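The methods section describes the discrete structure representation at length, but only in general terms. Since the whole study asks how a given chain folds, the encoding of that fold should be made plain. An entry of this sort, consisting of the sequence and the corresponding backbone structure tokens, reads as follows:

. . .
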Amino acid sequence: MGSKERIQRLKDENRMKILQASLQIIRDEGLSSLSMRKIADIIEYTAPMIYEYFANKEAILSELAAIGYLKLAKKVKEAKEQEKTPEKQIEAMWLAYWQFSFDQKELYQLMYGIGAPCCEMQKTFQCTDSHTKLITDVIKEIMKDKKPSDELICRKYFTYWSIIHGLISINLVNKGNGDETNQQVLKDAIHGITRSLNN
């Protein structure tokens, strides 16, 4: 390995250490506690060195949110690939989304901490297999006989997302009505919206 590659690998490792330390602080102490000084203390570097990798705290949070979107897309894609029919795929994908929101609670809260219109949500985090695109492709498949417009597909996605994100938000604040009831409410919501796609 040449010196150029070695330097780049070291930079990539340092960048990842900064992101991991930031997420650790957010998990342990909350988002408001994140500071360049605390990150520097954890990774045993100076705070000015962190600025060589990230312009400010917001840049770190933006990078963490981007990582969250990629992880979520992977989970949603894996769930889709486990099922054969579009109706089963849409249920599996939203259940994977639900699970991700609790497994990666801090990332999820970073990803959706600031409201954005439905299909604008990920313009900053473009990738061909975004979870939004994966899900809207299945919605389009279910509705193919109606030849739906992009606007209608976006609205249907937003209907799913609003209900599921609302239920997640309730449960992030407290436990809602218990796991069994939460799962039933979630499945009822998914099934109800899915039925409406062909009406």
